[in-house]
Amino acid sequence: MAVDISHLTIATPVAVSSTNPVALELNGAEAIARFPSIVTVLSDGSIQFSAPTKGASSKSTHRTRCEWTETQDWTLASAQDHWNRQTMTLTKVNSAQKVVIAQMHVRGDDGPPVKVFWNKGNITLGFRRTFNQTDPVNSTVLKGVPLGATFNISIHTTSEGVVTVTAECNGVSASSGDLQLDSTWASRLFEFHGGVYNQVDYTDATPAEDGSICIISELSLIHR
């Protein structure tokens, strides 16, 4: 099934311009047209996202990404259920062996409630129960997700702020269980993210070949 990213915004590892080193964000269809080596449509309709470790990043980090983002923010109460479902294959990973593959992000803050990682062959999770919580609570959702294996990852959030992260690979599935957001998140605006976000800071010495690549073969975003 073809993956449609034309309604999404893509954060790229490409600089805005020769004089502005900040990472360029643009519409999915435009990203495919302008940067086919970074956002690539494969023959089966899947989308490949490539993020070299050394590239353009946001103003606040030295970490690169190739990541889709919803263009429409939402609140917990705006729908009974909020779903982010991806079928993915990580074909290359950076030297730190750690990359963010999915997020439930919050507008205007660097501390999202949910970050899902591929971390040295396991799917792990960082969860913030409270808005502006300094450090997330980290846990392992599913062990044994090797490089090159196709896996499913989902983030489900209810209007009551109950979050469940589920992962499945090679017929084995596991869940985070129900994680409860507290009332400090009720008025916040959220958007789902996915793709590859390198968890290693680049330097002048970072090899050009270091980086992460994923293939997204199915993507479903539902709010209802």
Descriptive account of the structure:
There is one protein chain. The protein has an eight-stranded antiparallel beta sheet with strand order 2-1-5-15-7-8-9-10. Strands 3, 4, 6, 11, 12, 13, 14 and 16 form an eight-stranded antiparallel beta sheet that branches. It has one helix at residues 28-34; strands at residues 8-15, 23-27, 39-41, 47-52, 65-70, 81-92, 98-106, 114-119, 122-127, 137-142, 150-158, 162-169, 172-175, 179-180, 190-198, 211-223. It has a single domain, classed as Jelly Rolls (Sandwich), CATH 2.60.120. The protein has one helix and 16 strands. It has 224 residues and is mostly beta strands. The longest helix has 7 residues, at 28-34. The two termini are 22 Å apart. The model has no long low-confidence stretch (mean pLDDT 97). Strand 7 and strand 8 form a beta hairpin.
Secondary structure: elements and pairs:
Elements: E1 8-15, E2 23-27, H1 28-34, E3 39-41, E4 47-52, E5 65-70, E6 81-92, E7 98-106, E8 114-119, E9 122-127, E10 137-142, E11 150-158, E12 162-169, E13 172-175, E14 179-180, E15 190-198, E16 211-223
Antiparallel strand pairs: 1-2, 1-5, 3-4, 4-16, 5-15, 6-11, 6-16, 7-8, 7-15, 8-9, 9-10, 11-12, 12-13, 12-14
Protein name: Alginate lyase 2 domain-containing protein
Domain Alginate lyase: 3-223
For this entry, give a set of tags.
mainly beta; eight-stranded antiparallel β-sheet; Jelly Rolls; 224 residues; 1 helix; 50% strand
The gist of it:
The chain has 224 residues and is mainly beta. The chain is built from one helix and 16 strands.
